[in-house]
Backbone:
């Protein structure tokens, strides 16, 4: 069994035809406990935490097959509410039938919310790393939100249907969800992986370095050949820049 790291994913080559992808995320001090820094319902915390690994898997074309939650709080009431949020997010993603397993903390009294989620996915065909070419373009789906901003904009966050549709587009070369490191970091990573640089149109824009919290932004690399067609179909996406040779 071969173990490889790709971005934030662990890839496990089980056989020549079968590969698994493992993604995870964690959340702490966000919830309804007295020492939480951000006060928000546990259902929302858990849904946002699950969203991150699901987005990471879906963006590379892996099919989620199992979910495990590690809740650092008591089952009743915090854990029970977190699990309800997880199941709600699974339904949003069309994944209600996936097996869900996990654990809660029943031995210690906790005063701060804590949650970790791991999602395992599989590739239905051999995984091939996407290749971005010089002259391809980078677009932004969604807006960077973090903390209370996420709560205020829950109804307008980019969603699973957006990802499913973009994965079917012939014009889309690569997809990458953005988290705490920001748009510029992740865009530069996409370029570096392909031996390129990324020419941002507005490199000093503060939004490029802002945290995107629970994957509230997805970067979309679009082929030069299909750019105009892509813009017509997805006018809501923001064009950020162009990939170029070093």
Residues:
């Amino acid at each position: 069994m071969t173990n490889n790291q790709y971005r934030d994913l662990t890839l496990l080559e089980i056989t020549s035809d079968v590969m698994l992808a493992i993604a995870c995320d964690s959340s702490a001090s966000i919830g309804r406990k007295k020492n939480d820094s951000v006060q928000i319902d546990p259902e929302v915390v858990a849904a946002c935490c699950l969203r991150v690994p699901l987005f990471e898997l879906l963006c590379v074309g892996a099919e989620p097959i199992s979910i495990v939650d590690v809740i650092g709080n008591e089952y009743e009431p915090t854990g029970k509410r977190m699990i309800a949020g997880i199941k709600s997010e699974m339904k949003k993603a069309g994944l209600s039938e996936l097996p869900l397993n996990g654990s809660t903390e029943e031995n210690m009294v906790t005063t701060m919310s804590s949650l970790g989620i791991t999602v395992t996915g599989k590739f239905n065909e051999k995984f091939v790393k996407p290749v971005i070419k010089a002259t391809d373009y980078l677009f932004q789906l969604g807006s960077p939100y973090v903390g209370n901003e996420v709560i205020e904009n829950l109804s307008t966050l980019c969603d699973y249907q957006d990802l499913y549709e973009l994965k079917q587009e012939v014009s889309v070369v690569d997809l990458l969800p953005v988290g705490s490191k920001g748009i510029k970091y992740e865009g530069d990573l996409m370029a570096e992986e392909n031996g390129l640089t990324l020419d941002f149109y507005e490199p000093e824009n503060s939004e490029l370095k802002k945290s995107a919290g629970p994957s509230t932004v997805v970067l979309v690399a679009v082929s030069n050949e299909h750019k105009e067609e892509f813009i017509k179909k997805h006018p809501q996406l923001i064009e950020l820049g162009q990939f170029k040779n070093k």
Remarks:
- The chain is about 30% helix and 30% strand.
- Residues 61 and 188 are 21 Å apart (CA to CA).
- The two ends are 36 Å apart (CA to CA).
